[in-house]
Design goal:
Low-confidence stretches: none
Distance between the termini: 64 Å
Helix content: over 70%
Number of helices: 16
Radius of gyration: 23 Å
């Protein structure tokens, strides 16, 4: 049965999906239009062939992204107005009794599995066709299947207990269940940040302490002058799966780790790695990580409050194709609708993220060489086939990092 909320959902889904496809099409057209000439900023460092490869790679990813949007919208409609959530609820109700915690767990897990299965063909195509075509994929089918199984097992081991607690709170904790669920979520997130580096990451990659030499000496000196302490500096075998390079921090408190991809260490000179690491240190020293956590927890508080207000409303379920309201069905519906309703806030989060990237770059120039950071970024743009000519509107919506030309110009000014 349709109601006013049905049309709100359909309008939001249509607007968000159409905008996603429009943005992807803009990006593809823009990079193709600028394919034949390297931007002046990079003319001496990026060959035309590499620039054209980046344009073709970006276009291929954009075309696949449009297919992914269409599949996602179709699955959302099938689950809601197509009646699939109600059908799954009826099926599991026959086994466990509608509304029980076991029923809710089975319902939500079946929805997660269905969504993952729907996205699997796109993931396979991206990995073994797009990434393979442009020389990035090093994943074998055997490794892909092993990763898939590990992710599923880890997800079940870590996710099901949390799900059981949340469903129990929804049933037993009264009108304030959402507040208690938020407290559990915050505690769970902090605990995961502590255990993730040591217990979860090694299930997927090998981490080797950075060997003695110039790079280790430079990094040690950088950590000393910035006052950063960590539980270790490691090189990760990212080359097992991809030739893309990266560096990141993981963990929280005393469990912090600095991780460099082996592809990054192999490609960059020690002063360039030092400059990249100085940028990453900037995120920590400027409290970007703590601020992001606080923002995430604040937003999750607001989201769970909104869910607490909606969960008992019959029109919410009826408008989305569910005739038998349950806590688990309400959770599923809410997290299907939420991304569509808030899609148009993407530019704000992207703007905030780009601001933090500029701040981390500025921090890096105070503790390492701006010229070395420029050289490192140019190599990474080249090696990762990152487009140097993104569509401005697409970039404003999605890009967490500033456009290459603008970022390099600021760093050159600092140098």
């Amino acid at each position: 049965m349709t109601n006013a909320f049905t049309w709100v959902f359909l309008a939001a889904l249509a607007a968000a999906s159409a905008t996603r496809i429009w943005l992807a099409a803009r990006q593809v057209r823009h990079v193709r239009a600028h394919r034949e000439e390297v931007p002046a900023t990079f003319a001496g460092a990026i060959p035309l062939a590499a620039h054209q490869k980046a344009a073709d790679y970006t276009a291929a990813k954009g075309a696949l992204g449009m297919v992914e949007v269409a599949i996602g919208a179709g699955i959302a409609l099938w689950l809601t107005l197509g009646g699939l959530i109600q059908q799954l609820s009826d099926f599991w109700g026959g086994w466990f009794g509608t509304g029980s915690i076991a029923h809710g767990t089975a319902l939500l897990l079946s929805i997660f599995i269905l969504q993952a299965a729907a996205g699997l063909p796109v993931t396979l195509y991206r990995t073994f066709v797009v990434e393979e075509r442009f020389g990035f994929n090093r994943m074998t089918l055997r490794l892909f299947v092993a990763d898939l199984a590990k992710h599923a097992l880890v997800g079940l081991a870590l996710g099901v207990p949390l799900l059981l607690v949340v469903l129990w709170l929804m049933e037993r904790a009264g009108d304030r269940w959402w507040l208690y669920a938020w407290i559990v979520w915050v505690a769970y997130s902090l605990a995961m940040m502590m255990v993730y580096p040591a217990l979860i990451l090694p299930l997927f990659n090998k981490f080797t302490p950075l060997a003695e030499g110039e790079l280790r000496a430079r990094v040690a000196a950088l950590l000393e002058r910035t006052g950063f302490r960590s539980s270790g500096l490691f090189v990760m075998d990212g080359s097992r799966r991809s030739s893309h390079g990266n560096a990141f921090f993981t963990g929280f408190g005393a469990a912090k780790r600095i991780v460099l991809f082996d592809t990054l260490v192999e490609r960059l000179q020690p002063p360039e790695v030092e400059a990249v690491l100085a940028h990453e240190l900037g995120h920590y020293k400027l409290h970007h990580i703590a601020k992001a956590m606080a923002l995430t927890f604040g937003l999750s508080f607001a989201v769970l409050f909104a869910l607490g207000e909606l969960i008992g409303r019959g029109w919410f379920y009826a408008g989305l194709g569910v005739a038998t309201p349950t806590s688990a069905a309400g959770l599923a519906l809410f997290f299907i609708v939420l991304p569509e309703l808030f899609f148009f806030l993407h530019p704000l989060t992207s703007l905030y993220s780009r601001k933090r990237e500029y701040e981390a770059d500025a921090y890096a120039t105070r503790h390492a060489s701006a010229s070395d950071l420029v050289r490192a970024l140019v190599k990474l743009y080249h090696d990762n086939a990152a487009t140097l000519t993104p569509d401005p509107v697409h970039s404003a919506f999605y890009d967490s990092h500033p456009p290459a030309a603008m970022r390099i110009a600021r760093l050159k000014a600092a140098a």
